[in-house]
Design brief:
Keywords: Signal. Helix 2 packs across helix 3. It contains three helices and six strands, in the order H-E-E-H-E-E-E-H-E. It is of the alpha+beta class and 107 residues long. The strands form two sheets. Strands 3-4-2-6 form a four-stranded antiparallel beta sheet, covered by helices on one side. A two-stranded antiparallel ribbon has the order 1-5. The protein has one domain.
């Protein structure tokens, strides 16, 4: 009985990848907070690219609902927004760097 429980736990852990999924993301020049050196052009470019392309078959490998949106901090706080949480942290970071930002932030 104990062996089958352990085996089941091992199989459950090995069957899929775990991703940090986000509703909002932005590209930054330095730091990761939403107010530290935001790179709006890289954010726009990364958001548009993420919406138009598919990188694999996982939920976070495409973002068909990604749009540029103003958050509660006003028009200077534009973010890439995905109401269905399609934004993968690693994918977003790679896109931000590809489009000239220093890093990508998300929540």
């Amino acid at each position: 009985m104990q062996l089958s429980t352990v085996l089941l736990a091992v199989v459950a852990c090995a069957t899929g990848a775990v991703a940090d999924l986000h509703t909002m993301a932005w590209c930054v020049t330095k730091g990761l907070s939403i107010s530290s050196g935001k790179n709006l052009q890289a954010t726009r470019d990364a958001c548009d690219y993420y919406r138009r392309n598919r990188f694999g078959n996982e939920w976070w490998d495409s973002c068909p609902d990604c749009i540029m949106e103003t958050n509660a901090n006003g028009p200077s706080a534009l973010v890439c927004w995905s109401p269905a949480e399609h934004i993968g942290g690693d994918q977003w970071q790679d896109l931000c760097i590809h489009f000239g930002a220093g890093d990508g932030g998300a929540n």
